[in-house]
Amino acid sequence: IQIEKTNSTGVTVNTTVSESADGTKTYTYTIGEVNFGLIERPETALVLDKEILLKIEKAAQGGDGFSHLQDGRACFVQGALPGETVLAKITNNGKDFAKAITLKVLEKNPLRETPRCPFYERCGGCSLQHMSYEEQLTQKRNLVCEAFDKYYDGDASKIKIRETIGMNIPWGYR
Predict the structure, then answer these.
(1) Rounded to 10 degrees, what is the CA torsion of 55, 106, 94, 61?
(2) 32 pLDDT exceeds 70?
(3) E strands of 42-129, at which residues?
C-alpha cells in the first residue's frame, strides 16, 4: 500500500505499508529524498479502545493506577488501585505512555471502597473516593517519597518523611 499526504505547510509524506505472513506491518516513511527508515508494528499493537488485562503496580499522581504495558511503556489507569488486576480500555496511546479506564476489576484491592458521592463516576472532582481514607494517606506519602527518590540530588534515604496527617472526619470540608 502506498499513501501520499501533504500537510498544511506543503510537505508531502510518502508512506509505504507492507505486511508479512505473521501479521507484522512495516511502515516506510519518506519526505522528499529523505527515507526515515522502517517501523514495524505487529498486528497486536496497542490501539485505541483495545481492551487489555493489567496488573496495577502502584498509585500515580492524580489517583490513577500505574502499570507497565508489554512493550515497557507506562500506562495510567483511571479507577484502578495498587495490587488490582483490571480489564481496561485504552483511551490514549502515546509514544512514551498510554492511558486507560477500568472496565472491570478482576482482582480487587481489599482497601477498595464504594464511593460515597453519587456523582463520583461523572464528576471527576474526587479521584480517590474508591480508596479507603487511610490508604489515601499512605499513597500520598508514597508519592512524596518517590518524588524525593527521583528528583533529589542527594541521598533521599536520609530524608525523614513523616506520615501524612489526616482529618478526623474527611467528608464535607469543601
Answers:
(1) -70
(2) no
(3) 51-55, 58-59, 65-68, 74-78, 85-93, 97-107
In which order are the strands placed within the sheet that holds 25-31?
Answer: 2-6, 12-19, 25-31, 34-41
pTM of the model: 0.67
Instruction: Please state, in angstroms and as integers, the Cα–Cα distance from residue 40 to each residue in 19, 68, 73, 77, 135, following that order.
Output: 9, 20, 17, 26, 42
> Quick one: cell of 139?
499513597
CB 83 within 8 A of CB 109: yes
Q: Are the CB atoms for 35 and 29 separated by under 8 Å?
A: yes
87 to 2, 14, 103, 106, 172: CA distances (angstroms): 36, 37, 6, 7, 32
